[in-house]
Amino acid sequence: MSDGHESPDDVTTAVLGAVVARVTALADRLGVPHAQIFDTARLSVASGVPEPVVKALLSGRPAGEPDVQARFLQRLDLLRRTRLKPNGRKYTQQEIADGAGMSRQQAGALINGDRRPTMEHCDAIQRFFRVHAGFLTAEDPEALAGALQRTEQELLHKLADREREAAAAAADPLERLLQDHGVRGIAWRAAQLPTDQHRDKVAEWLDMLLESVKRPES
Description:
The protein is mostly helical. The chain has helices at 8-30, 34-37, 40-47, 51-58, 68-82, 93-100, 104-112, 119-129, 140-171, 173-181, 183-190, 196-211. The longest helix is centred in the last third of the chain and has 32 residues, at 140-171. The chain is elongated, with a radius of gyration of 26 Å. The model has no long low-confidence stretch (mean pLDDT 85).
């Protein structure tokens, strides 16, 4: 029976739903396909959440939550498969141990599941693989929400850039003309024409178009 308070799981699920809604709205404003934003393989790599669980959570379905050690092992395995050395190979146990400041025996025990990780172990391994804090420990809905929040920030930056460009174009008739008519693209394509006669005709048209507006006096 409920005592009127939401459980932590309910709160986390609500947070995820809210982030999904915001990201969806931003993607629509920017014309970004949903399939690109909600690419489950990409989100799995970014969050550490298994792809089937990402699909379930995005569909609003509950997904079984592993215990702390099982989650750690699953995400550490994902890190080793997706965060590779410059030569494309996995980091060895010795390299992880050296980078995380622990012995090879400690690293091996953690990787093989023979030892439960501490927060210090998790922090050290996260720093070694250059992933955000909580990558190895956050519950699945929280981890997925975090990955989508980072996507949200990227989309917000794109939206801000677009709005700045639109404001600059509105203040400058010539810039607005260049954007509305794709003049720069036309000029580039004109350069690919086979003869000077063709290019001269395009140049004449562009001259007429550009002369139809003037920049405001500074």
